[in-house]
Design brief:
Pfam families: RNase_H. It is an enzyme of class 3 (hydrolase). Belongs to the RNase H family. The chain is an alpha+beta fold. The chain folds into 2 domains: 79 residues, no CATH class; 193 residues, Ribonuclease H-like superfamily/Ribonuclease H (Nucleotidyltransferase, domain 5), CATH 3.30.420.10.
Length: 323
């Protein structure tokens, strides 16, 4: 869509392909973020949900009433694009390998993930993680200069998102393929109607995105495969910014926003941060890399296919076996 069309609608295009809609998100003059093609905060056609930006705007609200509007818009654009602003942590000196467990742990703020910094904004995961390392018969995506860095690509989708009868699914890519007859290894599942701690939950694209990350982290005892870092590549701004930036304030505020409203999907946020802490105890760091949707087509297609599966009530883990 040409820039003039957006401006005529009072919209500002922010970042291309940051959701399932082809035109990406746009910001309205009142600060709300909507999908480009249809102008909805929650759009069932695009499988996108930008309602979390309202929480972010409240969290980031500056007490200075004279704050420059242009600078505020640039800050939102920077966040939506997920540009990395900090270097990755140094590799761990050693990796401890406790017995793998599937206990559910609520994060307490003892550890947070960081952002992965690619060589440039145009460098793709295939270029950075061009290494291949075998574990039993599984071939992992590894960093070209560091075979102890693992790449996992995750995605979530919700059909009829924000409408009647929504159906959400998640997926992640954990294994490299060797050719047309050996495609990449993908795990997928339908989003459960109950959260990890037994709470009733809705079907939404944001919950599916979080669920995909949690599933990927719990799929294998990654430290046992001698990885010291797991890089999660996702096209979800919600996941990347929420886990690396916003969650710090949420924990300090008792999982309440600055406006004293409960943080949405707090059960999955707590579970995700619990996984980060669990892997930190095992000597492994978690990093997030926000990538465009066109770099994540395999996980995207699998998540949409999983959303068509039968309903799932109780939470269930999918554990991968090295064969």
């Amino acid at each position: 869509m040409p820039l003039g069309w957006y401006l005529a609608q009072g919209m500002y295009p922010l970042a291309p392909d940051s959701s399932d809609d082809e035109e990406g998100p746009c910001e309205l003059p009142d600060g709300r973020v909507v999908c480009g093609p249809h102008g909805f905060v929650v759009c069932g056609k695009c499988c996108s949900d930008y309602s979390f930006m309202e929480e972010v705007l409240n969290e980031d609200e500056d007490e200075d009433d004279d704050e420059d509007d242009e600078e505020a818009l640039e800050e939102i654009a920077r966040r939506v694009q997920g540009i990395c602003t900090q270097p990755p942590p140094p590799p761990a000196d050693h990796v401890r390998s406790p017995v793998r467990g599937t206990e559910k742990r609520r994060g307490t703020g003892l550890a947070f993930p960081t952002k992965f910094c690619p060589p440039s904004p145009t460098t793709t995961p295939a270029e950075v993680f061009s290494g291949r390392r075998a574990w039993m018969r599984a071939i992992r995506y590894t960093h070209r200069n560091d075979p102890s860095m693992l790449l996992l690509l995750t995605d979530g989708a919700c059909l009829n998102n924000g409408q009647a009868n929504p159906k959400a699914g998640w997926a992640f890519v954990h294994q490299a393929g060797t050719g047309p007859d050996d495609p990449p290894g993908v795990a997928e599942g339908r989003l459960e109607s109950k959260g990890p701690f037994g709470d009733d939950a809705i079907q939404s694209s944001n919950r599916a995105e979080l669920r995909a990350v949690i599933a990927a982290l719990r799929f294998r005892h990654w430290a046992g495969e001698n990885f010291h870092t797991a890089v999660i590549a996702t096209d979800s701004v919600y996941v990347v910014e929420g886990s690396t930036v916003w969650a710090r304030n949420w924990i300090r505020n008792g999982w309440m926003t600055r406006g004293r409203a409960p943080v949405k999907n707090s059960d999955l946020w707590e579970m995700l941060l619990g996984e980060v802490e669990r892997w930190k105890d095992a000597g492994m760091d978690i990093q997030f890399w926000r990538i465009p949707r066109e770099w994540n087509t395999v996980a995207d297609a699998a998540a949409k296919a999983a959303a068509e599966n039968h309903d799932v009530d109780e939470w269930r883990d999918i554990i991968g076996m090295a064969i």
